[in-house]
Amino acid sequence: MVDRLLGLFRVFRGKKKKGPEAASPQQHENLEQFQPPEDDAALDHTEEKEPAHGCFRKTLKTFWKFPRIRRRKTGSAAAEGPAKPESGLTKLQAEPDVSPDSPERSENCDTSVTETRTKILLTSMTEDVAITNTNNEGTQGITNTNNSPDPAEPSEDSEVARNDQRAKADMAVTEDVDITNAKTRDTQGIANTDTMPSPTLSQELIFDYFKDPRVSSQQPQVPAKVKNIHQRLMSQVTVDFWLQTDILRLAEEHPADVVLTLLRCAPTCDRAAAMIWRTIGSSSPTVEKVLPVLLCVMENWPLHSMCTSDGDNKDAFALAATLGLWVILQVPECQEAMNLYSSRLFVALLFHLVITTQQITPVEVATFWRACWEEHHLHCKPNRFAVQAMKALLCRLQWDHVVLAMERKRGWDMLLCADTQHYAVGLLARELCHVLDHFCSSIALRLLWPHSRKEPCWDVPFLAFLVEALECLDLSKCRGSTLKTMARYLWSECCLRHHLALRGLTVLTKDPWMARRIYPLSQRLLELLGAPGTEVVSMSLRVFMNVLQHQNILVSSTTAPKLTETLLLLFDHDNSHVRLLSIQLFCKVMELVVDEGKKPLKTTVNKSLLALFIYCHDENWQVAKASWETLLGAAEFLKRSDLKLQLKKEQLSKFAECLLAEDSSSAAEHLRRALPYLQSPQEPLREAAVRFMGMAGHYLKGQPAELHVLTQVLEAMSEDDNPSSTNLQIQAIFGQRCAELRSSAGFREPGSQAEYQKTVKRAPGFNVTGAPGTPDAGHSCACCKLQ
Question: Which pTM does this prediction carry?
């Protein structure tokens, strides 16, 4: 058993001495009696008895799995003779996993893998040697006390020969350990600890020897590294391979530190900084890590404050980040990363463009940009540079057609003017929506985020883009936020803001979900119906029309009277489109008003009959058709079957007679309502009014208000600069009737215009409640001839 245990330490013995001290025959017999185990059972048994020896055996088993490491030999006799002390520290050479006798050896072995395996081997070996020395307390070193035969001798038995490969590995390890103890002259084993230092190796020394000499043991902070790289590039023309690797590695692992440090140490983007930005742009994964930090700086105008890992919280210019982005955009490899952040980049550049155009640039920003202008010969105004950066972004995304379309329509120039900027932003949105629906939708969603910009100058361009992008926006994702945004700007006092909000509501109310939730805005929409702007009134009418086109939506009893009163005034609007929409909406309200609101609505519907009758003669056939349809709906709403019958027969003259015959006491009122149409620019409308007034005058005879009404008619007709023959005839008839009434009342003919005005004032007042007069059956009035 002792011989077996000692046989495990053969690897630590020196080479066998040839001479008179050769092993005795008894020792050979002991060797023949020792048979190595077939498996690891004996080895495991040994490990249980000797822990130190077992640990070392485990180390050797691990080492056998690695490529063998051997020492360069200076001659064939080196394996047989003792190790020479002057050989010194030799280099370790890695061999491939091939037979040691094969001449084919790999010359391209992975150095890093070899160094790692060597570190593991030497560290484990050092620990095993230390444990072995500790356990052998009675021994001053491992010596050849048993004089066991050398396994390398030719007289070894067959079992030792079978493990020749393992023995060679053991010998290689033994030789390397012997070499490490440089002061040892005896190669039979490890020297005595009384006279030599401890053979244990320092793990720190081993790692210091094998590690990369370019990496310092004390890692500096990332900002310091970035500053060092920037300083080194100041004296270089290009970025070498090692610097490029360091820049990309730092930017991927610490993007915030790299970006902020570079923006602080080189805000104007000097030549060295531009080289770093271009290096970053050459790697798409690196750009993906860097872009969010650049965008964070760009979105905080005019300065962004963030603390880096070294504690520096100095502000960085937002325009400096835009300048760095502009340099990256020049590198083609960045396109894939730009696609990922395209919508956010576009919004950030658009914000820079708007705010630098409509706001006075702060002093510190102006000073900074002056330095950038001198450094790169850029545009002297930041907003022009923002346009240049936006063009570069669109071109990098391969949307050159948008850039060219804006050029043809002079959209880029309009973007640089504060008064036309909102129109140019809408134009840009339309050009993008034509071919890039998804991109516009992403921009619109980003604009609707709650943390979007709150600057007043940003509202109008933001709304202009949003309104144009609503057509391609998926409203199922942003119904609530979109309606809330439009409602907020609808109450604005700024005409442009609520004009854009109305445009947005016109699109949104096409959706049934939006239409059902528009009721809280009805009061504001009613107010806007009286606005002086034609377009505002038109869009307000369109919003109401879109709402009432959906099923199961009714007009409340409180809204219907207010809305119809306002619409009745819009019948006489100068714009034919407003007139058309108001008449159509009036018809819709009569159809969709709730049952409780029909009775209060009858008064307004009665007032509308004369106006609708007049506009049935409108030159615009759409207005004439809508008036006829609405008049038919009003007759049905009032349950006037006589009026409905005449309309179906298309006999408008009979309709007027029926209207006056229903209540002759209201003839004066109808006559007075017809007066404004005598001043209409349309000849058909004036003629229709005159014919109706002729019929109304027939019913007005004998009433106290007749003289007053006729006088007003004459005044209105006398203001016509180019009267028709019908007007002249009516003026003659009414003038004769007025003279008769004045003569019977004791008034003389006025001698001048002033006296005529006094006569009119002294005439009996307008009295619609006067007793109705009965026309004389035998009287033949010229007015009746006009019927």
Answer: 0.64
